[in-house]
Amino acid sequence: MAVVLGNAYEAVTDKIRAMIVTRQLTPGEWLRFNDLAAALHVSTTPVREALRALEADGLVEFITRRGSRVVQLSFETYEEYQAIRAALEVLVCHYVAEEFARIPIAELRNTLIDIDEAEAQKDYPHRVALVRQFFFIIFEASGKKHFLRILGGLWDVLSPYIYYFSSIPETVSTRMGYFRKIYEASAAQDEDKLVESIDSLNSWAITTLGSFLREHPDLNNQVDQINVNAS
Predict the structure, then answer these.
(1) Cα separation of 20 and 156, whole Å?
(2) Of the candidates 52, 33, 53, which has an alpha carbon nearest to the alpha carbon of residue 43?
(3) 121-178 residue pLDDT tens
(4) Which of 90, 195, 197, 203 is deepest in the core (most CB within 10 A)?
(5) CATH architecture of 75-230
(6) At 71, is the secondary structure helix, strand, or coil?
(7) In the chain, which residues fall in CATH 1.10.10.10?
(8) Has domain 2-70 been given CATH number 1.10.1060.10?
(9) Cβ-count burial of 121 within 10 angstroms (0-12 exposed, 13-18 middle, 19+ buried)?
């Protein structure tokens, strides 16, 4: 029975995380145990455990005497998490460079092609998943499981922001340009170029994409309309 409950908890956590990332659950939305349990066809027990896990991941916040809600987007939160992610990714890239041969280049190339297609089709949920897949194909070559675990958590927290940025059409060509440089550096086994490309991408994200957050103080109310307009 414990195994079943464990599996249910993990499955519910994954489903609610996906609902947050794809904005089926929007920033600031209150999360009702009974409603989520009914929607996912489970009891409230795994829902409660899932929300605790997602709170630890930074996707859900608990408000005293009010309950749990989806964390709202803000420039300050984005800047902090993105800065941590940027520093760790540069460090991981140095480890990757020691084992460049571990990167499955054909898989990396095919994932890049899939990202381009998802961009063209404005399939934002699929694009978010593909971008993560693209980067972790590279990062996993480091063999550093603890770094990968920490980076995975950071990507979880930043996923709602990545989804939002995916819907800003004027950023598409710049993003894809960085992704191609990262692919080329990996294929050429060029450590300096790989580090420079990922570092430049993260710097651009903080300064350029972060400005969208600062320019929209009521972003959490407007972002769904922005996504509609962009599509």
Answers:
(1) 10
(2) 33
(3) 888 878 888 999 999 999 999 999 999 999 998 998 888 788 778 777 778 889 999 9
(4) 197
(5) Up-down Bundle (1.20)
(6) coil
(7) 2-70
(8) no
(9) exposed
